Amino acid sequence: MEIRNDMGVRVYMETKKENKNLVRSSGSLMLLEIPSSPAIEEYQNQIITESTQTYIEEGQIYQDKQTVAAAMKNFSVMHKFQFRVKRSSHRSYWLICVAKNCKWHFKATSINDSAMFKIRSFSRQHTCSLMDKTFVQRKRTAAVVGSMVVPKYCDPKTIYKLKDIQTDMLSEHGLNLSYMQAWRAKEKALQFLRGNPSDSYSKLPKYFYILEENYPGSVVKLKKAADDCFLYAFVALCTSISGWQHCRPVVVVDGTFLKSAYRGIMLTASTMDAAGTILPLAYAAVDSENDASWKWFFEQFKEAYGERPSMCVVSDRNESILKATSIVYPGMPHYSCMWHIWTNIRSKFKKGHLQLHELYFATARSYTLDEFNERMLKIEEVDPHVKSYLYDIGYHRWSRVHATVNRTLTMTSNIAESLNAVTKEARELPIYDLLEYMRTLLERWTKEKLLKAKGTFTYPGYKFNKELDDNNTLSQKLRVRASTDNIHTVLDGVKRYIVCLQNKKCSYGQFQLDELPCAHALAALRHRKETYKNYCSPYYTRKSLLLTYEMPVNPLPDESKWDVPQHILDEVVKPPAGDKRQPGRPHKERYKTFDEIKSK
Predict the structure, then answer these.
(1) Vertex 313 angle, CA 351 and 340, to 5°
(2) Across the chain, which distance is largest between two alpha carbons, in Å?
(3) Which secondary-structure segment (H or E) carries 285?
(4) Kind plus residue range of the DSSP H or E element containing 117
(5) Where is 355: in which H helix or E strand?
(6) Residue 46 and residue 48: Cα distance in Å, rounded?
């Protein structure tokens, strides 16, 4: 029974049946305001709500039977013994040692038919021999150890290996766990923390509703099959949609495997901001990487971001992406990651030596046609089949100088690969936790990048300011001869370059393709005693960086505070109908080709 003493402290007591202060109402205990007296001091105890109780003794009162049972499981693991349940009901919980003729026993019963349980009898002395060998075979070990290590896995990026579990349990509690026991404990901890993976899909309707309510202007879509099984989920937050207007319209897309129970693929679209860092535009979870899923992804992306002049897509040479972009964005250029093409060359022709490697990348980055053709002749000398392969792909897909739309420094899909690396651990989460992780990642990045932008005092962002510094260093060795106010001849040893400042062009090609003053342009500007600020792309400036992140990603309220309409709560989303991941330890890394292993 709960009472208040003279100091107003809430305490719990058990009274004898003849106690006149006890009042019953339909089988339940009533709260009484009675004064404390010496006669009932022995019955007063503070209720215990935690199952990780380190000391257990007679007279302790627990909030319910489940807490008592969990506390005894934890107690048995910590003291390395085994027990079995002799009697269990809603009124009593009786344990004895597994060994015959052992005097150890534990008994707890409810207090006057309430939910609270009190320890009536506890004989802690064993008269049997305790053996760790039999103890470690008990199934409860994984659950108890798992409950202890739950805090270690709250952050998906925290690295807490099975060896760490074994070491901590041995040093802190004297438990010598096997590798498989540690693995099962980790699985239990993840289950306690994240729940059942299938339940994660049922949370999506209310989660998407809350996203739309808290982030007006966002585009969130959920697609189900005819039998209500999950197919696709797409999220593009209003912060990214707003920031996209101040970034160069180059979209880098990629897909990566999910490693949760129901597997699947995560599709992402990103771009580069004025500081040269990643701005995630959209992310989606789909069943597999195929024509239908990519088409649906680009349809939602177009709804969120529309289409801008000089817009292009960069990806690996995935045929599904090529088909989807040609359908959703007809006529929009699609470029291939030059690293992906090099990987194909290395595996297809078994050519990976340094000379060809340097030639290929220098050719892809060429700023003039003459330079490109000269290097292609050298590639042909090394291996004519490689040149034919590059020709069949199409020079415009991988060569900077042949590109129909200026993609400047975005020659690879590295920003998408970097985003995949950041989300590596999160891709093991259930889908609800994965989507929430991506939202919190964008929330954190937006705040951090805005602070960095406010602390930036150079005209361009960090990456492009560094390019300017390098070009400025090179320009110090150049000689300039002015032909007119806007046209200058720049001499680099025996080479001669023509710079037209009015048209922002240089005969070397770098000025107009990078949209950033090259060394020759900086030399001409220094000759005119003019600043470079009017000759940089507006997408590189500090002002664009501040505008990109001016709209914050505000935190979401706690799930218990969500106000969701009933028809949203009633919506059913079942797990995907595909095969689940097989039980056991999952494979962490993708299977690599022989050439990739050999090259290392």
Answers:
(1) 15
(2) 114
(3) strand 278-286
(4) strand 117-123
(5) helix 354-364
(6) 6
Beta bridge partners of 391: none
Alpha carbon distance 177, 137 (integer Å): 10
Nearest 5°: the CA angle 25, 28, 31 is 85
Closest by CA to 548, choosing from 280, 318, 349, 329, is 280
Beta bridge mates, 314: 252, 335
User: Which of 201, 177, 147, 152 is CA-nearest to residue 425?
Assistant: 152
Give the Å distances, CA to CA, from 65 to 27, 52, 223, 431, 453: 18, 14, 43, 34, 56
Nearest one of 230, 255, 417, 414 to 324, comparing CA atoms: 255
Cα–Cα distances (Å) from 425 to 153, 257, 294, 312, 421, in that order, read 11, 12, 24, 30, 8
Q: What are phi and psi of 129, to 5 degrees?
A: -90, 130
Q: Tell me the pTM.
A: 0.74
pLDDT in tens, 148-160: 787 888 777 778 8
Q: Is 399 left (phi over 0), alpha (psi -120 to 50) or beta?
A: beta
pLDDT digits (tens, 9 = 90+) for 72-82: 877 877 776 77
Which residue spans within 170-264 are E strands per DSSP?
219-224, 230-236, 250-257
